[in-house]
Amino acid sequence: MISEILLANTGQTASQILEEGVLAQSAIAEAMNNLWEEVLGGGLYFAITRLGVFFAVGTLLLFVVQWAKAMIDGDNPQSFSEMIWPLIVIVLLANNGAVLADGTRGLRNIINETNLLLLETTSSTVSLQSAYQKVMGEVGAEAAIKSVVSQCSAIVDPQQQSDCLNNAAAQAQEIANSLPTPPSSGLSQFIQAITNPVETGMKAISSTFQLAVRGWLIAFGVAFQWVTEVSLLLTGLLGPLAVGASLLPVGAKSIYAWLIGFFSVGMVKICFNIITGLVATMVVNADANDPMIFAFATGLIAPILSLALAAGGGMAVFNSLTSTASFILRKPF
Question: The whole model's pTM is what?
């Protein structure tokens, strides 16, 4: 009777833990959609656009002086090709930056569709998204099962503890059966070992610390995804300033830096999801049931590695894009 009372509340939250693990990424992307519409269609974006227009007017004076100097020096082809930049700035910043806002949304949609396509692409026989969902589901299942088993360790009477462990094993099997995919061999072995009081007691000693560390790591991974989404929004919000400063007659155009920065943040998101998906695929294929491996990969290794890959790729694309654009604009008509 005591064991049934102890296990009742835990069983009610098991399905919620599993569902939250499976829907973590989709919830983040869905929550950001309304925020993007509110920010790019609200007063904040209009105010930044007006500041971008102010920058454009100021840099236009410098651009005209530089353009007139080039015409006097006889560099006519290059001067005529540079005239496209004021037209681009006017089009992008007109009507409170409506064209630029639509283009920014389009760039975000391209990044999200590419990310979804990569997650749905199969690696061997398992898709990255399915592998991620399966591992996250088993991580949540093991957390729920350990929470159930930990209730039994507080019971002193051997018979009541044995009954509690038997009930915990039955409930653990129900939790495993509620997963969208069959449990791995590692999770099955973990469930079978629940009825062993000695092994269960040893696991109960370290389960609290492991659950805390794993919870922090997974929470850090989810927070990193939120920060990535917010960074993408902030980069898109600064678009009018980059466009307005593109008429400066020095160095590379700021719109190039803004575009590469936007796509670099998108590359962080894509690389993070690919890394976590590949790690999940390896865990699924190896039938390994050590949630700490996936927690470390998701919360620590994947954010660092994705930032490094995106930074290197962003600089390479920036250098090649600026070189290509300079060659095209300087080519005579």
Answer: 0.70
